[in-house]
Amino acid sequence: MPLEYAGVVKEHTAVREGVGVFDVSHLGKAVVRGRGAARYVDATLSNDLSKIGPGKAQYTLCCDAESGGIVDDLIAYLHHDELVFLVPNATNTAEVVRRLAEQAPDGVHVHNEHEDRAILAVQGPRSDELLSAVGLPVGHDYMSFVEVELDGAPVVVCRTGYTGERGYELVMPNAVAATVWDTLFSAGAEHGATACGLGSRDTLRTEMGYPLHGQDLSVEVTANQARLGWAVGWKKDAFWGRQQLVAEKESGPARLLRGLVASGRAIPRPGMPVSGDVDAGSLGRVTSGTFSPTRKQGVGLALLDAGVSDGDEVSVDVRGRREVFTVTKPPFVEPHVR
């Protein structure tokens, strides 16, 4: 996926106001299948898969069994008890597959299908109109999916996305991806369909406060620190890292992932130090930051000492200048995923 096609702001605005199409085939794809596949996924990944049924999707975490740190965050699509489709982050796919495959019980098989499938994301308030124009089903519940055919090719239409807007992700064999892309844009001219790249994907997700593995999340960051406790099945008997996460939850994490909004014109960037007043020491660092095209100001995420609260003012070292930011709970713009 290129950084941009027609410009980050134009593509960002298309998703917020119309419809944008991303080729996100770089995302990982893995399948866990066999008798007891769903039970195995539930016993290893963090969220409680038993809370959803077939045809539903769930955000979950692959945690390190020893430290509780986040190996990856991913979406699990439950087809049925013997088939779970996983979408990890691209660079972490092999590691997630390795960990799952190494401990899989007899009869459960884990396959890396990254090279076999493509994913196109159709995101924005006019996404239903675009998909309807090409004959794909729309209107099913958020975090659910439907298996259909488009011109004889199997396509999974998922009500998921990474932009904060209503939208869909289409999973299909690699061989038909280019044809589906062309079909979408042939039908999408009257709907203002815009090709979108990595740059706008990042500004859109940052406005929502969605964390990115490799920046906001890592094996050195736990679900408690990232404020992702809602993606943990705390009542489950087992999942990787459970003991460490429960202990940290009880004692309280030393740092937390929080949002930042610039008081002036400064734009935060990953790695920038965050502090209190002039005489105070370091409070943490920026993990993600960008200019928000919607708010017209700098926004970001930062791992900060647990004593920092929403509403506090902090200083970010922006190229040697101390810039004031307000600690703010994301999202920074109103989401419309439903």
Structural topology:
Blueprint (H helix, E strand, L loop, with lengths): L7 H10 L2 E4 L6 E4 L3 H8 L11 E8 L6 E11 L2 E5 L5 H11 L5 E4 L4 E7 L3 H7 L11 E6 L2 E6 L8 E7 H15 L5 E3 L1 H11 L33 H10 L3 E8 L10 E3 L6 E11 L4 E9 L7 E6 L2 E8 L10
Parallel strand pairs: 1-11
Antiparallel strand pairs: 1-7, 2-5, 2-6, 3-4, 4-5, 7-10, 8-9, 9-10, 12-15, 12-17, 13-14, 13-16, 14-15, 16-17
Helix pairs in contact: 1-6
How would you characterize this protein structure?
- The chain has helices at residues 8-17, 37-44, 93-103, 127-133, 174-188, 198-208, 242-251; strands at 20-23, 30-33, 56-63, 70-80, 83-87, 109-112, 117-123, 145-150, 153-158, 167-173, 194-196, 255-262, 273-275, 282-292, 297-305, 313-318, 321-328.
- The mean pLDDT is 97.
- It has 3 domains: 8-26 and 116-208, 2-Layer Sandwich (Gyrase A, domain 2); 30-112, Aminomethyltransferase beta-barrel domains (Alpha-Beta Plaits, 2-Layer Sandwich); 254-328, Elongation Factor Tu (Ef-tu), domain 3, CATH 2.40.30.
- It has 7 helices and 17 strands.
- β3 (56-63) and β4 form a beta hairpin.
- It has a 6-stranded mixed beta sheet with strand order 8-9-10-7-1-11. A 6-stranded antiparallel β-barrel has the order 12-15-14-13-16-17. Strands 3-4-5-2-6 form a 5-stranded antiparallel beta sheet, covered by helices on one side.
- α1 (8-17) crosses α6 (198-208).
- It has 338 residues and is α+β, with helices and mostly antiparallel strands.
